[in-house]
Amino acid sequence: MYKIISNKKLAENIHEMIIEAPRVAHSAKPGQFIILIIDKKGERIPLTIADYDKEKGTVNIVVQAIGYSTKKLVSLKENEYIKDFAGPLGNESEFVHEDIEILKNKRIVFVGGGVGSAPIYPQVKWFSERNIKTDVILGFKNKDFIILKEEFEKLNCNLHICTDDGSYGFKGLVTNKLQDMLDNEEIDEVITIGPMIMMKFVSKLTKKYNIKTIASLNTIMLDGTGMCGGCRVSIGGKVKFTCVDGPEFDAHLINFDEAMNRQTTFSDIEKKHSCRLDGAING
Amino acid sequence: MDKRIKMTEQDPNVRKNNFFEVSLGYTEDEAVEEAKRCLNCKNPRCVPKCPVAIDIPGFIQEVKKRNFKKAYEILTKYTSLPAVCGRVCPQEIQCESTCILGIKGEPVAIGNLERFVADWAIKNNIEIKNTIEKNGHKVAIVGSGPAGLACAGDLSKMGYDVTIFEALQEAGGVLTYGIPEFRLPKDKIVKTEINKLKKLGVKIETDVIIGRTITIDELIEEEKFEAVFIGSGAGLPRFMNIPGENTKGVFSANEFLTRTNLMKAYLEDYETPIKVGKRVVVVGGGNVAMDAARTALRLGSEVHIVYRRSEKELPAREAEVHHAKEEGIQFHLLTNPVEILADENDWVKGVKCIKMELGEPDESGRRRPIEIKGSEYIIDAETVIMAIGTTPNPLITSTTKDIEINKKQCIVADEDGKTTKDKVFAGGDIVTGAATVILAMGSGKKAAKAIDKMIRKNNS
């Protein structure tokens, strides 16, 4: 059993939860994820690690409550427990292994969207702790959906917030902002995490400029250790498993259309489940 | 020569609609009758064919005398999982294959008797007490499948302080996520046998992924385990690399079976979804293929098995093939898929197959299947399950220093399970590639002996 240390609402349907999981916290690195199970009958839910504290033995996750299980998860309170919390899973980001001096001379831009801003945080923090300034473009529907703004502001980065309706920051999509930067500045690398469709368009854009781009995929997964093969994606025409080969891949090689298609495998069943929960929680 | 006592089974027409166990087991009288058939050979030919060398005539003689408890005591000297072995071992190619009675008639039903004794012990709450004092030496086991459990059981009986690390939320490995409920009940059998090991003092830590949560080197250096046994199995599912394989509705047998067995997706109130079409094609002819096919059948589908060789080469246990046929699963032998066809929403709508014929034997000793040109045809289906084997998971080997692997990504280990890395042993599918529960258990037992020898030597 894993204790919920805190559960904070960041925006409508988006919660940050801190979970006590010393073994996971001990080994966590930027780019990795966890799988949790709420209770005996719960499913295995993969979620990206949003932060971790090795000393306290805690791991942060940011959850968007859209389906049955995520709604149930965010309804849990401080000091309650979840049954399982396994990780860290997947490979750490490639930059963790790069030479610091080389990284210092690189201009890296992070592009996140919505809840995808959360997994970007430990990555930017990693650079910030090594005194490397990065650029961060985060996109949200409107100002009410902005998350982790204060946290990012404390890091050594240029933060650019975009909203679809212009209610805060840059008016437009992250790709609009990114294009501005690509047109006017020297950029070496882009790292993008967020909705699949957003990553697809970021990738399309950077390909035109021939800029190395990494995307982090959040596919349908069961065990997360390579056993089920459900998370398979086509990378440069070859089949890879997101959980053991990823989750980060060269974005220009990802078959995004196939990946998006596979994500809808269980969507009709999910809808049925969700309705049942709305009744159970609200009713 | 008397015929063997048949085990009662659920009617095929009833059982294809439920997940209850197919074979119902012997009654006490039936077991005694069957045991009487054993000739108690002076030089039993069955024992050397058993990977864990159970004293087979020994336990059967006790059944004959209705000393079921004594029979159980004999069994558990050799196996920590008799109720499992009695159900899933391929007895027909092991112990029973050399039984003297089998020359002219039917061999003694050793598997059925083993199952009877183990079930009797469970029903009567018989526990074997471990009276050995703890020796304080710590051993870590990676994976709680048959290899790990066997190794843990034996080490614990020798007095070791054993901790098993399991990546999933429940112990049992393939016994829990792979083999279906109707062949191996989870609560009644698997959990009960694992709980017996816990009572012997074996600790099980779930949700720990060795290679990610903690590495083998850390277990030795930081957590001070004096030996590590890796029994992590052959994890990654194989696919065929044919067009359309990433279409929605194509699953690996691992995914399909894990959703049903471990995550209980077939039960209405569990949250993991499963999707199975009106018609299902299962590719492969092993036990896993039979398990996937019979599971899909129970979820309400019409099921077709596609296998590229002939009936004679089917690698599954005879009993499973027989059960599958009784339940109405259709076999397309000498047939191989060449393409998965998708509809406009990118869901599977059929499998294009080609007929095969058998040529000269290949390196496996079996006649090699060759495509018959122009014989393609389509089987309509909405779900395809690939049950064509697995390859070892690189998670552990890629994060462990100085451990040698071979071309097939398997860990290199000697007869005793010793790897190229100091203090590290391995066994089961991670060494041999996908094999059977009993072979994995055999390797776990051998490694337990070797670990004991090494630790004694290091401390003398």
TrEMBL record, chain A:
PROSITE patterns per UniProt: FAD_FR
Keywords, alphabetical: 2Fe-2S, FAD, Flavoprotein, Iron, Iron-sulfur, Metal-binding
Cofactor note: Binds 1 [2Fe-2S] cluster per subunit. Binds 1 FAD per subunit.
Single Gene Ontology BP annotation: pyrimidine nucleotide biosynthetic process
Essential cofactor(s): [2Fe-2S] cluster; FAD
An annotated Gene Ontology molecular function: metal ion binding
Amino-acid positions noted as binding FAD in the UniProt annotation, renumbered to this chain: V62, V63, Q64
Binding, [2Fe-2S] cluster: C228, C231, C243
Location of the FAD-binding FR-type domain: 1-95
Lineage: superkingdom: Bacteria
InterPro entries for the chain: Cyt_c3_hydrogenase_gsu, Dihydroorotate_DH_Fe-S-bd, FAD-bd_FR_type, FNR_nucleotide-bd, OxRdtase_FAD/NAD-bd, PyrK_electron_transfer, Riboflavin_synthase-like_b-brl
NCBIfam families: PRK06222.1
Name of the protein: Ferredoxin-NADP+ reductase subunit alpha
Gene behind the chain: pyrK1
TrEMBL record, chain B:
PROSITE patterns, sorted: 4FE4S_FER_2 (PS51379)
Domain of life (superkingdom): Bacteria
InterPro entries in alphabetical order: 4Fe4S_Fe-S-bd, DPD_II, FAD/NAD-bd_sf, FAD/NAD-binding_dom, Helical_ferredxn, SudA-like
SUPFAM superfamilies documented for this protein: alpha-helical ferredoxin, Nucleotide-binding domain
Cited Pfam families: Fer4_20 (PF14691), Pyr_redox_2 (PF07992)
GO function term, MF aspect, one: oxidoreductase activity
Domain 4Fe-4S ferredoxin-type, chain residue ranges per copy: 28-59
UniProt name for this protein: Oxidoreductase
